[in-house]
Specification:
The chain is mainly alpha-helical. It is built from eight helices and no strands. It folds into two domains: 89 residues, RNA polymerase sigma factor, region 2, helix turn helix motif (Rna Polymerase Sigma Factor, Chain: A), CATH 1.10.1740; 56 residues.
Length: 183
């Protein structure tokens, strides 16, 4: 059945059958109309459905079929333009947010690199055996592995580790506190 002037009047009174007839007659063509603006099928269907929902709440509709079609296509077009505008804003805000996150990430990397540089300078000043053991600890070796490789007791390795940490603590307590989370 075709949607006609009679159905517009019924739609204005909230008639569900008239609404379903409107949906059957115009949903596909309006969706294709919206897709011509470069939107996906899902986004186009959402826009048309939202427009229909608003139509169902609007009881002050044009009574002439041609005026109603014009009203319908204009409403869908405006909804489409609003969607495109909002998407541009969302993407712009998302880009700004990602740029800020990149800046923070770069700052974190700078701080981390500076801390490693400071740590490297401190480790260079340590006694040779203490330095060797501490560098291996920083590389992820366990006390047992270091003791085996250097033919030392595990207690000696642990003592040298403690000594290295004490040296770091004494010389640069701020650097040590910052780096302690990495150890």
């Amino acid at each position: 059945m075709k949607f006609s002037d009679v159905h517009i009047g019924m739609l204005s009174k909230g008639d569900k059958k008239a609404f379903l007839l409107l949906y059957d007659n115009y949903f596909v063509s309006l969706t294709i109309f919206v897709q011509n603006f470069g939107l996906s099928k899902d986004d186009s269907e959402d826009i048309v459905q939202e427009t229909f929902c608003r139509l169902n709440q609007n009881y002050n509709l044009p009574e002439n079929l041609n005026a109603f079609k014009s009203y319908l296509y204009t409403a869908v077009r405006n909804k489409c333009f609003n969607y495109i505008r909002d998407e541009k804003r969302r993407k712009s805000n998302e880009t700004v947010f990602l740029d800020l996150q990149d800046d923070l990430l770069i700052f974190d990397k700078i701080v981390e690199n500076e801390l490693y540089r400071q740590m490297h300078l401190l480790v260079k000043e340590m006694p040779p055996q203490c330095k060797n053991i501490f560098q291996r600890v920083l590389n992820g070796d366990t006390s047992e592995k270091i003791a085996n490789d250097l033919n030392l007791s595990v207690e000696t390795v642990k003592t040298q580790r403690k000594k290295a940490k004490r040296i770091l603590r004494e010389k640069y307590s701020l650097v040590y506190r910052s780096l302690y989370t990495f150890l």
